């Protein structure tokens, strides 16, 4: 069925197509716009490798009124982490690194100040105890990932590595990016283009070329009631703890999210420096089609060997997150269902992927043959997860019959 519906500023609010079996998804997607929850957004789903949902609508840039089009890319924040993990696992498959080996084996300077036993797996699972960059990163250094990584190499862990996990919101990318650079001589962005996005023809870039950055949707703030809460909202004491952390400038949560200080750039994360820098924790610019296509290729075994993916999505850590406060769960770089990765019950055992700050979502489910992605530019009041994405995923699973 064709998805075109009412007009806004002369452009369709919703366009694209939706397999009749997934009419419920179209209803939910339209409903978000009708309720004023969206500015611009896109949602794409593959079932058994075939596209069954490809929807988009709304406004890509509130300042100019530019419409969201089929090929509109947008910064997907931490959805990037799953791409970076996949690059690391590709290198491991080729024998260039061992996730169980110390990081210092390939990055000797990293061993300083008690970090000699931190493994690549600790980086992938947020157990390294390095969620914060202690030294302020100057704006002039934003595109020098090696220099930022060198700052982390000089730090000591906040907790004993391997004894707890806490979301490495930005440092995840600088740490793993340097490991990738040391063993391959290339950046995560370069390997993503050469080994993943390029061969599959995906609209996905870890570091956007100038022409892609120029047509990217512009992120816009939504209502903010505390930056740390999950989309569904933790209950009781957890809610209080999250609120306290969100309001405390010295909390691990705010320190992890605030350096490098993106807010110092005009337009914040919309600034071309951020879009082209290719930070491996939050720098992926993609269309919903491109991000869903990434999971389609993963689920089909065309990026990693099936046995590699099965092992990678096996939960390594689960429970209270020292940075996000609420429960989180991770395999080797991939999120697993938890408060930070809200997943419908039918996918709670089998889904994996990653959310992005503000609401974006990438999800793969090998058992159900699903790959999906939601991208948007109206930021939700959540570090990780969005009820909009959850509702869409719920409608997809409910449509499977």
What does this structure look like?
With 401 residues, this protein is an alpha+beta fold. It has one domain: DD-peptidase/beta-lactamase superfamily (Beta-lactamase). The protein contains 13 helices and 16 strands. It has helices spanning 23-34, 80-93, 120-124, 145-153, 171-184, 188-200, 210-215, 236-247, 252-257, 272-277, 288-299, 306-312, 387-398; strands at 7-8, 11-12, 14-18, 40-47, 50-61, 66-67, 74-75, 204-206, 220-221, 284-286, 317-320, 327-330, 352-355, 361-365, 370-376, 378-379. The strands form 5 sheets. Strands 3, 4, 5, 6, 13, 14 and 15 form a 7-stranded antiparallel beta sheet that branches. It has a 3-stranded antiparallel beta sheet with strand order 7-10-8. Strands 1-2 form a two-stranded antiparallel sheet. The longest helix has 14 residues, at 80-93. It is globular and about 60 Å long. 56% of the residues are buried. Mean pLDDT is 93; it is low at 224-233.
